[in-house]
Amino acid sequence: MRRLILLRHAKTEREAPSGKDRDRRLDERGIKDAAEMGRWLARHDCDRGLALVSTATRAQETWHLMAPDLRNVQVEHVPALYGADPSELLELVHETSVQDPKQLLIVAHNPGLHEFALGLIVGGDRDGREALATNLPTAGAAIIDFAIDDWSGARFHGGKLESFISPKLLRESSGSD
């Protein structure tokens, strides 16, 4: 069994001072949401394994705000995650077979991450699949389980959605929205 957590970076400023998309930083809400998602992941046994994090500023900031709660997660900073399509993301997952983490977290970007999640899931949490069908929002996470022995066995339509969570859903469940 292997668990894949796909997490989109948290909410960002509209434009970076440099004018480059890669340099966009988190806004105030993004900072709060990233930290909350780190706490949620830790509380739900998602605090170990390997994290692949895009080198774009917003993904790096998201990771750094989550990292204090995910102390047992090793991290690799992966430039190829920026702009990656679903096939490229699957290839990166397959490459982790060398390290063979039981749990893999990817912090990256839409549209590729959202399309990747949709392409992997074949069953699981029905409400989560319905919510994920329309969007993978900023700081949203799709947690997908695979009945495989190592990551080289991960395939499209091979995963089961364990859960889908976002800062908005967390606020709604706590009654603070």
How would you briefly describe this protein structure?
With 177 residues, the protein is of the alpha/beta class.
Describe this entry's structure for a reader.
- This protein has 177 residues and is α/β, with parallel strands linked by helices.
- It has one domain (2-174): Phosphoglycerate mutase-like (Rossmann fold, 3-Layer(aba) Sandwich), CATH 3.40.50.
- 35% of the residues lie in helices and 25% in strands.
- It is built from six helices and seven strands.
- The chain has helices at residues 28-43, 57-66, 86-95, 112-120, 126-134, 167-174; strands at 2-8, 48-54, 72-78, 103-108, 121-124, 141-146, 159-165.
- It has a seven-stranded mixed beta sheet with strand order 3-2-4-1-6-7-5.
- The mean pLDDT is 94.
Furnish the topology, listing elements before pairings:
Elements: E1 2-8, H1 28-43, E2 48-54, H2 57-66, E3 72-78, H3 86-95, E4 103-108, H4 112-120, E5 121-124, H5 126-134, E6 141-146, E7 159-165, H6 167-174
Parallel strand pairs: 1-4, 2-3, 2-4, 5-7
Antiparallel strand pairs: 1-6, 6-7
Helix pairs in contact: 1-2, 3-4
The CATH homology group name: Phosphoglycerate mutase-like
CATH top level class name: Alpha Beta
How many angstroms does the end-to-end distance come to? 35 Å
Shape: globular
Strand content: 15-25%
The number of strands is: 7
Instruction: Determine the mean pLDDT.
Output: 94
Report the total helices.
Answer: 6
